[in-house]
Specification:
Elements: H1 5-21, H2 28-59, H3 64-67, H4 72-109
Helix pairs in contact: 1-2, 1-4, 2-4
Length: 112
């Protein structure tokens, strides 16, 4: 079973978001922020994955094998896929960071 770059980058985006969002935290704000960030990343993982799969299935129909030549249509197709991969990475990263900050805010507002 082969693993693509797209399969690897989605968990990496969530891990990077957790690292960026939880940096410098300790105690309850770290735990609550990490759990909230992980939950936000997991939801974004499912939603972004389904949206990307729908987009790829719509744009990579039976003519995709023909478009893989070196002509301009093939290059446009590869560029569109690269942009989609980067967009999914950015969305997962940002939503995970937002989830960690929301969890940290929640931990600071609720007295334990």
């Amino acid at each position: 079973m082969s693993v693509s770059l797209y399969d690897i980058m989605r968990p990496v985006a969530i891990a990077a978001g957790l690292g960026a969002g939880c940096a410098g935290q300790r105690g309850a704000s770290l735990v609550v922020g990490g759990v909230a960030g992980l939950a936000a990343g997991a939801v974004a993982f499912v939603v972004a994955g389904r949206a990307a799969k729908a987009w790829v299935s719509r744009h990579a129909g039976p003519s995709a094998a023909v478009e893989r030549s070196v002509d301009a249509a093939g290059e446009r197709s590869e560029t569109a896929f690269a942009i989609m991969y980067l967009a999914v990475f950015a969305v997962l990263f940002l939503l995970t960071v937002v989830g960690t900050y929301a969890g940290q805010w929640l931990a600071s507002e609720v007295s334990f």
